[in-house]
Write a structure and sequence with these properties.
The chain is of the alpha/beta class. It is about 25% helix and about 15% strand. The strands form three sheets. It has a seven-stranded mixed beta sheet, with helices on both faces. It has a two-stranded parallel sheet with strand order 1-3.
Length: about 240
């Protein structure tokens, strides 16, 4: 590990999740995509987990910014300037919007490192290489395959000490395309078995702002009924 756990990490990390929350398109000449309609009422728990896990591996000198809506991200980029690292979740339903943001970020802030992660990524190396050349090249610096929490934290730690180009091919689960067109890959991380190693983003207060306009309903634990057959008596019990 390039930086010991607990040492200060000066990176300004900015992440955006599932921007399909807005059924948006970028009009010609627009600086950044703008929201049109809200199309989903879900919480950005996945990227919040990346943030809380990262805090267990390093002492971030700057907060991790989480975004649910495209216009909020656009406003932050306009007002606060470029982050050192920006991450996008990548699903089949938000692929084009995430790529549009990534392209615009790279065009305006070429020194910002763009990281993608999510299931909308080919499984086999030849297809992954084509995917990079056809869709990601020039827009995305790293794509995290598989478990995102440890790989993203390792990327942040490594970025803290090394030039981005020196990171290529060194982080398990992080893929990146070299200038010569060769795709550098490492095997994905194993699944996290102890989920308590990812601190709750709800208890950390990272999710509070995303309850906007919602009326959460709290219920006691419900009994989940199912039928089973007792093999000794053939009697069914609930």
């Amino acid at each position: 590990m390039a930086t010991a756990v607990g040492e200060g990490c000066p990176l300004r990390a900015c992440m955006v999740r599932d921007v399909t929350h807005a059924a948006a398109s970028a009009p010609p000449g627009a600086a950044l995509p703008a929201q049109q309609t809200v199309s989903a009422e879900t919480m950005p728990q996945a990227i919040a987990g990346l943030a809380t896990y990262a805090t267990t591996k390093m002492d971030l000198r700057h907060p991790v910014w989480l975004f649910k809506y495209p216009e909020a991200l656009a406003a932050a980029l306009e007002q606060d300037g470029p982050p050192d690292v920006i991450g996008f979740s990548h699903y089949i339903w938000n692929s084009q919007l995430s790529l549009a943001f990534a392209e615009l970020v790279k065009r305006r802030f070429p020194h910002t490192t763009v990281v993608f992660g999510g299931p909308h990524y080919p499984l086999h190396l030849p297809d992954q290489t084509d995917f990079w050349h056809q869709r990601l090249a020039g827009k995305v610096d790293f794509y995290v395959e598989g478990e995102g929490e440890p790989a993203f934290a390792d990327l942040l730690l490594t970025f803290n000490d090394f030039d981005r180009k020196e990171v290529r091919g060194t982080i398990s689960g992080a893929h990146n395309l070299h200038d010569d067109g060769i795709l550098y890959t490492r095997p994905p991380r194993l699944r996290i078995h102890n989920l308590s190693s990812v601190p709750s983003p709800y208890l950390a207060g990272l999710m509070d702002e995303f309850f906007d306009g919602m009326h959460p309903r709290l219920t006691a634990a419900r009994a989940e009924w199912a039928a089973r057959t007792d093999t000794t008596t053939n009697a069914e019990a609930a």
